[in-house]
Design goal:
By secondary structure, the protein is mainly β. It is about 15% helix and about 40% strand. The protein has a 5-stranded mixed beta sheet with strand order 1-3-4-5-6, with no helix packed on it. It has a 4-stranded antiparallel beta sheet with strand order 2-9-8-7, with no helix packed on it.
């Protein structure tokens, strides 16, 4: 191939990368990673997911409390953990919801909002008495499904 063709291909490649301004990049605009209904997913603080088919966006804002008994300690009370999520549908902010879970996995919190059930499955890491958990360390597992009834 001669140099003219190489130059032409380079210019064509660059031109193909320049959009008309109407291109929609989901993560840039909505700040959400696509997920599906009824499938478990993980979020860190300030991360969001979007269920495109439902125009539903959920963002993990913060851990509001973590009084779970550390795994290396014997406690009278198992404790609990709470998280705050922001919910929006069709770009309409429905507000924040708080989900609480007991340290016992039998106590899973589920909130119904606008026809959807949001279930807090797990909050990691589990506390250890000798280690501080930073906000950036938290990872929550959620499942979103359509409400029954």
């Amino acid at each position: 191939m001669n140099n003219k063709w190489i130059f032409f291909l380079i210019i064509l490649s660059i031109a193909g990368c320049i959009g008309d301004g109407n291109d929609i990049i989901l993560d840039d605009i909505d700040n959400g990673t696509p997920v599906n209904l009824n499938e478990q997913f993980n979020l860190k603080i300030d991360q969001a997911v979007i269920i495109e088919s439902e125009s539903l966006k959920v963002k993990f804002l913060e851990v509001t409390e973590d009084s779970r008994c550390p795994s290396d300690v014997t406690c009278i009370w198992a404790g609990r953990v709470g998280v705050l999520l922001n919910i929006s549908i069709d770009n309409n902010n429905l507000g924040d919801i708080k989900l609480m879970n007991g340290a016992d996995s039998q106590k899973l919190d589920i909130k119904d909002i606008n026809g959807y059930s949001i279930r807090l499955v797990k909050v990691d890491p589990y506390p250890i008495s000798t280690k501080e958990i930073k906000p950036s360390d938290y990872i929550i597992s959620l499942i979103i499904s359509k409400s029954i009834g």
